[in-house]
Specification:
single chain, Muramoyl-pentapeptide Carboxypeptidase, domain 2, globular
Length: about 240
């Protein structure tokens, strides 16, 4: 015989734990609340992703509107920011020691890494742009593929440099520079010193490939200077 048979039926029924009706309602409301919250979170995430995508597109369009013939505007570095690197060549003080170290490390491998150009004032850039345009019998648009218009050159910041191989001077400012030991050294080690190639092949700005032209992004100020260039998706 089951021992529970000695317990009156009424007491046995009362001893069974039951869930009150209002508890079912609370559980239902909580479940509904969780479901609604999940839906809101999912919709918020989708909205943020869409908004980020739209902002990226708008940002790229704004940058492109500020550009001139594929080049972005840059302010001149102040005299206090510049130091003389070699006769006639100034650079931003932030890159002086860095490039010196690069030259030293390259020289240890028998490579003559040369600084060909650094800071250029807007006036000097104007002379270069229009003089070369005239000499080469090019339109401004044609010339812009090889040289930035005045006020739109990375060189004005003092953070952009042109480099060459001292053992192969015939390749200076020529695409053939990419075949030299100096370029191959830069290609391998420049990022270690926070230098990046400004205009690689098929670059987003539509500027001609310049294996000699590198810019420094190793400080917060330098990164701010080139923030717009790094945000470009692709110029039309």
């Amino acid at each position: 015989m089951n021992y529970q048979d000695d317990i009156p039926l009424a007491k046995r029924i009362r001893s069974i734990k039951t869930i009150p009706t209002n508890s079912f309602l609370r559980i239902g409301l909580i479940s509904i609340g969780i479901g609604v919250s999940l839906i809101l979170l999912i919709n918020k995430s989708i909205f943020q992703q869409t908004n980020y995508s739209n902002n990226s597109i708008n940002s790229s369009e704004t940058i492109e509107n500020q550009s001139l013939l594929g080049h972005l505007p840059y302010a001149e570095a102040s005299k206090e920011e510049l130091v003389l690197f070699s006769p006639g060549i100034y650079v931003h003080k932030d890159i002086y020691e860095t490039f010196k170290e690069m030259q030293f490390k390259a020289a240890q491998k028998g490579i003559s890494l040369q600084l060909l150009s650094g800071y250029r004032s807007i006036d000097l850039q104007r002379d270069i742009f229009y003089e070369n345009k005239s000499i080469r019998n090019q339109t401004a648009i044609e010339r812009s593929r090889d040289s930035a218009p005045p006020g739109y050159s990375e060189h004005s910041t003092g953070y952009a440099i042109d480099v060459g191989d001292g053992n192969y001077p015939n390749t200076h400012f020529e695409v053939e520079f990419e075949q030299t030991p100096a370029f191959k050294w830069m290609e391998r080690f420049a990022s270690k010193y926070h230098f990046v190639l400004s205009f690689p092949p098929n670059n987003k700005q539509g500027v001609s490939y310049e294996p000699w032209h590198w810019r420094f992004e190793g400080t917060i100020n330098a990164l701010r200077k080139f923030e717009a260039a790094n945000k470009i998706i692709k110029f039309k």
